[in-house]
Design brief:
mainly alpha
Length: 85
């Protein structure tokens, strides 16, 4: 079924609910896109579409990692402050 919610959620990253987003799955999707592009079997328009999807996915990954880095930095700062007392 093409119109089922499950197929829409997995085929279009913009439809995903944030709670359903997964870093590892997104990286795997980007790797799959790169493999498709490198295969040389896609039409030029499809290459641009897939590349655009990959770039957006990588932006999501970058934002996720930046947020997690801030959390780690805050935890380290908190631990450092607690050890000073």
């Amino acid at each position: 079924m093409k119109n089922s919610p499950k197929s829409n959620a997995t085929s279009d990253p913009s439809n995903r609910v944030e709670a359903d987003w997964n870093y590892e799955a997104t990286v795997a999707e980007v790797e799959a896109i790169l493999t498709q592009i490198e295969s040389g079997e896609l039409d030029l328009a499809d290459v641009f579409d897939r590349f655009s999807t990959a770039v957006e996915s990588l932006r999501q990954c970058e934002a996720f990692l930046a947020q997690r880095q801030k959390q780690v930095d805050l935890l380290i700062e908190t631990l450092t402050d607690e050890q000073e007392f």
